[in-house]
Structures are given as structure tokens and as C-alpha cells.
Amino acid sequence: MTATPTQTLPMLLEEVEVRRVDRISPSFVRLELGSPALADLGVDGPWWDQRFKLIVPHAPGAPLPTFEGAHAGWYAAWLERPVEERGVMRTYTIREVRGEGADTRIVVDIVLHADGESGPGATWAAAAQVGDRAVVLAPRRGEFFGGIEFVPGTASRVLLAGDETAVPAITAILAQLPPEARGAAFLEVPVTGDILSVVHPEGVQVVWLPREGAPYGSRLHPAVLEHLGLGADPQGAVAEDEVDPDLWETPTYSSSGEAVLDPAALGEADVRDGLYLWIAGEARAVTGLRRALVKDHGFDRRQVAFMGYWRLGVAMKS
Ligand SMILES: Cc1cc2nc3c(=O)[nH]c(=O)nc-3n(C[C@H](O)[C@H](O)[C@H](O)COP(=O)(O)OP(=O)(O)OC[C@H]3O[C@@H](n4cnc5c(N)ncnc54)[C@H](O)[C@@H]3O)c2cc1C
């Protein structure tokens, strides 16, 4: 009888252990997730805003699914199982990779929902203790995984803007930019206590915008527009039916089905101010910025990535 060779998935789908827990600010908990299997974690180039998936129990005390021997059809098979057994999958950012070989750890900063309801991801993180377990879906060295949206190309300046869910990505990008990089980063966070110390190039200005109870995006929107010299435009009302909860409009992908033009064909004359913009956060707030920048002020959509990282009142699909 011929033995069936074990199939290796082109990504890591591995159980990890919480190795360290730090409450770094009122709204963020930082976790280090480790497993000897993370020795194969890797991407070809900088991590930038690399996203990954975390599978956690659907409620405290519920089981964590096992993926041992998973094959190419694992995702569809996992989705068919009742949520009480399969847990939930949520998207986060690799804030940093620490250690090496069998001691490689993924650092993730998870937002504890400031107001409104919590979700399984935030609930799990809030209670996480060393030794707790979860499953990660992350890039395997040498294989294409996707999930990096920060692609500034030949832009001479960057503008990074986001709310607390984008703080891990923006701070990771800032830490990896070359020393000569120029631009600005705007980070809207729930409270003043969430202002973190960040590593960034001297030529990139970092502006923290504590909301202190104000609506999502209400500090980010005017700050970005003012920075671009477009006046302190107030965040115009965005109607419910204007908000795409899956908003993802990048130079190479459009969730609304808009024609995607080749970013490589973007001439210097089209690129306003030599700028590349990366904007992520609550979907309504990002929709408002997109409307202002692309529709009202004529930015070429090939120089901007607009990403709805979450939607107020809507649980992430998994
Ligand atoms: C590419 C990408 C990278 C991301 N990186 C990170 C990251 O590094 N750290 C991080 O914390 N988040 C990150 N997010 C956002 C995160 O995936 C969502 O916030 C997700 O909804 C959290 O799942 P949950 O189970 O806690 O809540 P869900 O079950 O999805 O939602 C339950 C309820 O909580 C609300 N909710 C969800 N998120 C928040 C929030 N932040 N504040 C207040 N209410 C909220 C929802 O509106 C809903 O009403 C990222 C998202 C994407 C797409």
C-alpha cells in the first residue's frame, strides 16, 4: 500500500500558547503568542501591516478547535461545524515578531472595546492569561500569504491615519519605515492614556487624537483634511446605506466593484503631492474620509488604501 504523503498547508494553521500578557494602556492588551511551529513564520520582505487570523473559543470556557492534519479543504469543513465547537476567527495585525526558531513569538495588540458590546476576540484577550491557547493562521516562510496592504511605491511622502484598531498596523509601519521617510501619522484612540511611545523616522510627524467619548472618526477626519490643506472640514454625515461594512478600497482591490486601474500606470502628474495615503478604522469613519478625499477633493484612488477594519454594531464574519 502506498502511504499518502502528509500535505503541508501553504500557511501556518497552528495552535499557539499565550506566553506573555501586558496591559499596555486602558484600551490595549498586548499578547505574545508562541509555539515551536512558528519557527516557519516568515514573509518575503518587511512585515509592514501584515494581518493574520486568530481563532479563539466563541465564549469563555468553550472549546478550541483542533486543526491537526488539516488539508486544503479545512476552511469549508471548519465553517460547517457549529460555532460552539469551532470558535470564531478574527483578524489582527502582527505588531512585531520576537525571538527566533522554536522560540518565535507573534506580538499582537488587541483593543478592548471602549464602548458598546464586546466581541469574542476582545473578550478572549481581556481575560487572557499565560498558558491560554488559540489558533493562528499566519504566513509560512517561502509561501505567498497576502495580507500586506502598505504599498507606497515611489511616493515621496506617506500619510497614515486610523483609529485604535489600526494603531498596531500604523505603529508597526512607522517602526519599519526607512530613516529618510517623510510624512505624517494620525492615530485616533479612545482616551489620552492610550497614547503609546512609538519608534518613527524623524521626518514623519506622529499625532495622537484621543476621542474622550466623541464619535468614531470625529477627531481623525478634520485632522487629516487640515493636514492636507483642505480646511478643517467637519466629518460630514455618512448615511447608513452609504456604509459598506466590508469596505476595502485599495489601489489593487475594490469591495464596491469599482474598476481597478493599474497602480503602476499612475503617472507623476496623477499623484497629488507625491503622497501615498493608508487609512483604516471604523467603516463609517473611513467612508467619510474616502468621500471627502476622492469624491470632494479629487485624490486618485490609486494613491490611497481605504480599509474598513470593523463596523460599529456589526460583528466580524467568520
Ligand atoms: C486587516 C485588519 C487588521 C486588524 N488589526 C487589528 C489589531 O491589530 N488589533 C485590534 O484590536 N483589532 C484589529 N482589527 C479589528 C478587529 O478585527 C475587529 O475590531 C473585530 O471586530 C474584533 O472582533 P471581536 O470578536 O472583538 O468583535 P466582533 O464580534 O467582531 O464584534 C462584536 C461587537 O463589537 C463591536 N466592535 C468590534 N471591534 C470594536 C472596537 N475595536 N471597538 C469597539 N467596538 C468594537 C462590533 O461593532 C460589534 O458590535 C483588524 C481588522 C482588520 C480587517
Short description:
With 318 residues, the protein is of the alpha/beta class.
Please tell me about this protein's structure.
α5 (220-227) runs parallel beside α6 (283-296). The protein has a seven-stranded antiparallel sheet. The chain has a seven-stranded mixed sheet with strand order 10-9-8-13-14-11-12, with helices on both faces. The chain is built from six helices and 14 strands. The protein is of the alpha/beta class. The structure holds flavin-adenine dinucleotide. Flavin-adenine dinucleotide (FAD) binds next to β4, β6, α3 and β14.
Descriptive key words:
single chain, 318 residues, alpha/beta, seven-stranded mixed β-sheet, 6 helices, 14 strands, 16% helix, binds flavin-adenine dinucleotide
Element layout with pairings:
Layout: E1 11-25, E2 28-34, E3 51-56, H1 74-80, H2 83-86, E4 88-93, E5 96-98, E6 105-111, H3 120-127, E7 133-139, E8 157-162, H4 167-176, E9 183-189, E10 204-210, H5 220-227, E11 248-250, E12 253-254, E13 275-282, H6 283-296, E14 304-310
Parallel strand pairs: 8-9, 8-13, 9-10, 13-14
Antiparallel strand pairs: 1-2, 1-7, 2-6, 3-4, 3-7, 5-6, 11-12, 11-14
Helix pairs in contact: 5-6
